[in-house]
């Protein structure tokens, strides 16, 4: 299913095939680090006040938090193909997509903290993030991303502006009727749509084997005459290669593509989920495929970056994340009267 | 008897006792095995009855709700978990066009003995798509019974009644009453009989007797209204608190009798204010008690805005004890105290 880890001789070829070069990979490395550190900082603040007794209602961040630690490569590789005018519709697990799409981490953090400086003035929360200037939004309703991205794709086609729409989803979401319905319409109308399925093997506590009649969803895309890729979601080069083809096809008027990236979330479905439905060994096995350290090792093997360069990239990413969290923490909460405004435009 | 913490173990016990008796009762829904439907409504059932009868479905609400319709039409008694009520948009067609109507439209040929259990309520920061009540939408549609328990005792007994009912029933379990770890808990530990028992539909419960004002509430709002009533007593206001228990069928008689006694009615609801439960309750009460009402009926409900995320915003829209106290004072003509 996965390609073998590229050998030293194969690696430059694969990288070139993917349209990547040293600068692009260093940039991807930094962006993945930014997402990782950002999410770790969010996790840290989320647990403030919750460690003695877990209670979603207390602490500086309330409600649910869905981290994508381990899945950064998919978001970064896909969004590297996009411009600000391309649309991304994401899911309940959205931090990595948002940051990869260029959404300001400070305003993202502020929204997660429920602050008035947040993306949505504190009204949305992490499952309802909206950034109009980055053409980004998500939903806490599983399966909602496909038709909405298809709608953006329809709009782009109609307005003839060569933009592309991307729907991110989990593998669990693809069992929803919206996936099948969207495949049909997208193929029928040849929409500039890329559906990216992050197959992290679980939908909440439900393993894939308990919920899917096919091993992979890309098989279903093919039944609609939609080209589809199955890629190693822990390998940024592999995702990049498929994503580039998919986005180029869409932009050039050749219709939709499905990219299914096999990956793994290192944390629970939500923070507070002890994950008793997976074994420790399984988690540790996947942790060895960590997309960030994997890329770091390759950059070193290619002698494109030494320890010092990588450390500097990590440091600058961490500084940006720290600044984002600081901004969020120091921002004011919204005035309660705002609760009653903004239902209608 | 033993102590139970919350409505979730009470509901799962009722399902358990029904499954033991009725081989054609199965549980369908997302994460009903490992998580017990997230909040524990189906906890422990898979261990006892296996995956043949407690079935994790794919994330496909429209289809598993439709499965319940088809299975009920052919001799089964499905219990369906709709994880959060806010997901009803993904399956409402199967509920209101089929589950609710098939018995009537078939001229009585097809019964729909389906029990839907769903989690409702906000107050812990889960925002716009995971915090709603929405029972007014279900109650609006003819053919669906609507159960809104506020105590573990009622939750078990009303669920037992739901499971025995030949009609579709939706049991709304308030998250802040489930007793589930991770959720704030506003209920209290209760003595709940281990033996099976049922609580009839259509019978409201007077949780506290009073003479000055009638407070009508459901689920979590019953708890908050009782707390408000205790504070009102300090001001010399005697509030009667009525727990509606089932919206469909609705016990109008108890509500009207209380309204006729006190002359003043405050409706407290965590569902949206307009065109819903409070409006219907007010209609029924005035129809039977108009000549005895000494003031217009008032309500405290979620104003017509989606549930906001940020804590001060969320707090501003979900009815609080203080708000209930203030409204009751206003209704009885006692000025609100500062703060
Ligand atoms: C319509 C709907 N049904 C159920 C849920 C509850 N839920 C939230 S996330 C989730 C699992 C999603 O799994 P997957 O699509 O694989 O994404 P992942 O969490 O693995 O990223 C479920 C069942 C929901 N939010 N919306
Ligand atoms: Mg998944």
UniProtKB/TrEMBL annotation, chain A:
Keywords: Oxidoreductase, Thiamine pyrophosphate
Location of the Dehydrogenase E1 component domain: 61-336
Cofactors, names only: thiamine diphosphate
UniProt GO MF annotations: magnesium ion binding; pyruvate dehydrogenase (acetyl-transferring) activity
Swiss-Prot/TrEMBL GO biological process terms: pyruvate decarboxylation to acetyl-CoA
UniProt xrefs under InterPro entries: DH_E1 (IPR001017), PDH_E1_Alpha_Subunit (IPR050642), THDP-binding (IPR029061)
Coiled-coil regions listed in the entry: none
Name of this chain's protein: Acetoin:2,6-dichlorophenolindophenol oxidoreductase subunit alpha
Organism: Planosporangium mesophilum
């Amino acid at each position: 299913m996965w390609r073998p880890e590229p050998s030293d001789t194969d690696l430059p070829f694969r990288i070139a095939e993917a349209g990547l070069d040293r600068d692009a990979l260093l940039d991807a490395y930094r962006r993945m680090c930014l997402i990782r550190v950002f999410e770790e900082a969010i996790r840290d603040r989320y647990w403030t006040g919750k460690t003695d007794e877990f209670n979603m209602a207390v602490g500086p961040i309330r409600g649910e938090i869905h981290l994508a630690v381990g899945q950064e490569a998919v978001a970064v590789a896909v969004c590297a193909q996009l411009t600000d005018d391309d649309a991304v519709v994401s899911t309940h697990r959205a931090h990595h997509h948002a940051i990869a799409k260029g959404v300001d981490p400070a305003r993202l953090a502020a929204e997660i903290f429920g602050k008035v400086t947040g993306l949505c003035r504190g009204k949305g929360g992490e499952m309802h993030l909206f950034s109009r200037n980055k053409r980004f939004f998500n939903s806490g309703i599983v399966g909602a991303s496909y038709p909405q991205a298809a709608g953006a794709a329809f709009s782009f086609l109609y307005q003839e502006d060569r933009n592309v729409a991307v729907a991110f989803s989990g593998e669990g979401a693809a069992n929803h009727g919206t996936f099948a319905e969207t495949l049909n319409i997208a193929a029928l109308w040849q929409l500039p749509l890329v559906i990216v399925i992050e197959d992290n093997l679980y939908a909440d506590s439900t393993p894939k084997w308990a919920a899917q009649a096919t091993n992979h969803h890309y098989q279903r895309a093919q039944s609609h005459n939609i080209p589809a890729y199955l890629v190693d979601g822990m390998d940024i080069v592999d995702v990049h290669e498929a994503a580039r083809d998919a986005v180029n096809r869409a932009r050039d008027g050749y219709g939709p593509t499905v990219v299914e990236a096999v990956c793994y979330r290192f944390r629970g479905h939500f923070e507070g989920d002890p994950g008793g439905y997976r074994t420790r060994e399984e988690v540790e096995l996947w942790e060895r495929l960590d997309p960030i350290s994997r890329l770091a090792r390759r950059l070193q093997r290619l002698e494109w970056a030494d320890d010092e360069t990588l450390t500097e990239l990590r440091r600058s990413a961490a500084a940006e994340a720290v600044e984002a969290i600081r901004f969020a923490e120091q921002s004011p909460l919204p005035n309660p009267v705002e609760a009653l405004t903004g239902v209608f435009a | 008897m033993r102590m139970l913490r919350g409505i979730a173990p009470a509901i799962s016990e009722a399902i358990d006792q029904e499954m033991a008796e009725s081989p054609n009762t199965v549980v369908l829904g997302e994460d009903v095995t490992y998580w017990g439907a997230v909040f524990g409504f189906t906890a422990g059932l898979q261990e006892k009855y296996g995956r043949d009868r407690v079935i994790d479905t794919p994330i496909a609400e429209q289809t598993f709700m439709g499965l319940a319709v088809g299975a009920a039409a052919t001799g089964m008694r499905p219990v369906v978990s709709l994880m959060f009520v806010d997901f009803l948009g993904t399956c409402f067609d199967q509920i209101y066009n089929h589950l609710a109507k098939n018995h009537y439209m078939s001229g009585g040929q097809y019964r729909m003995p389906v029990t839907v259990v769903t989690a409702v309520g906000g107050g812990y920061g889960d925002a716009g798509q995971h915090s709603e009540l929405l029972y007014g939408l279900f109650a609006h549609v003819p053919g669906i019974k609507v159960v809104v328990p506020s105590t573990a005792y009622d939750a078990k007994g009303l669920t037992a009644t739901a499971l025995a009912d030949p009609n579709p029933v939706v049991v709304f379990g308030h998250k802040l009453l489930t007793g589930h770890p991770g959720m704030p808990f506003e209920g209290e530990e209760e003595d709940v009989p281990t033996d099976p028992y049922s609580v009839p539909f259509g019978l409201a419960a007077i949780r506290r007797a009073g003479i000055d004002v009638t407070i009508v509430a459901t689920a979590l709002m019953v708890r908050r209204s009782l707390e408000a009533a205790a504070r009102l007593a300090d001001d010399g206001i005697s509030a009667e608190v009525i727990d509606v228990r089932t919206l469909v069928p609705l016990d109008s008689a108890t509500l009207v009798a209380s309204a006729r006694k006190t002359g003043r009615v405050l409706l407290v609801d965590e569902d949206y204010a307009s065109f819903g439960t409070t409006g219907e309750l007010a209609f029924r009460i005035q129809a039977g008690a108009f000549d005895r009402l000494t003031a217009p009926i008032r309500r405290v409900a979620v104003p017509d805005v989606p549930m906001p995320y940020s804590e001060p915003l969320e707090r501003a829209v979900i009815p609080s004890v203080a708000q209930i106290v203030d409204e009751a004072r206003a209704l009885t003509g006692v000025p609100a105290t500062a703060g």
